[in-house]
Structures are given as C-alpha cells and as structure tokens.
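Lab notebook, bench 4. Still working through the backlog of constructs that have no structural model yet. Next entry is a single chain of 149 residues. Request: give me the structure tokens for it.
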Amino acid sequence: MKTVLVLNGPNLNLLGTREPAVYGSETLADVERICQQAAERLGLRAECRQSNHEGQLIDWIHEAGRLCASGEMAGVVLNAGALTHTSIALHDAIKGAAVPVIEYHVSNVHAREAFRHKSWISPVAVAVMAGLGVKGYGLAVAAVAQVTG
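Model written out:
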C-alpha cells in the first residue's frame, strides 16, 4: 500500500487556536483524521508530520523523493505555511527530489496580504489548492492519488 505524506509547516500546530476567523476551529488532529480517512478510501495510507523547522521539512521531502522513486510513496501534500513565500530551499528540495507535491493552503492566500501572493513552491508543485479550509486536505490527498495513479 502506497503512502501519501502530508507535511505541515510552521505554526500549523496552532490550528484551532490561531486566527480562527482565517483558519477555522479545526485542529491539526482533525487534519490528520481527514487525511487518513481520505487515503483509506483511495486504498492508500496517510502519514502526517508537522514541523516548525525548514530543515526538517527539507529532510522529509528528500526522504519522500527516495520513497516515490522506489514506488513506496505516491506523493506529498505540502502546506509549508509562511515558508511558502520565503523558502527557495524548499523549492530546490522539491525540484531536486523529483517528488510530486500538491501545494495546499487552508486559507485563500490570494485574498490576503500581498506578501502571501508569491509562492516559491508553486513552480515545482504538480498543483496548488487553497481556500478550502481544513476539510480540503482530503481533496488534496485525492489529488495526489489522481496525479500519480
């Protein structure tokens, strides 16, 4: 059974308490449950990880690249949080690892502050999804299955 890796970046551990008007009241545990249920429906397994550290996310992307190349992993759902708008290193990791990534954002970043309109992840992502709230993670897991299946 192939795995979908769901990576959440900085501050996403605060889901449910951080700016609920923007991000909703669901928690990271809710995200993980949604992803696991979506993956099961597709005959996949979801593995969810969160880190506030860029280097840790890069290491996980490198690992995902190796697992995708060996056929053990389908791809990655990545919500890089604010690193989306600042991290050329994440861009380079995705490109270098040749891992299929769905870029995901809980909020519609294009309806927010101007600095959130630029993504360093988008040019190397298979697709970008935004503004669907926490429940949209299930759709992002399905998107990984769609683009890699």
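Notes after review: The chain has a mean pLDDT of 95. Residues 4 and 45 are 6 Å apart (CA to CA). Flag for follow-up if needed.
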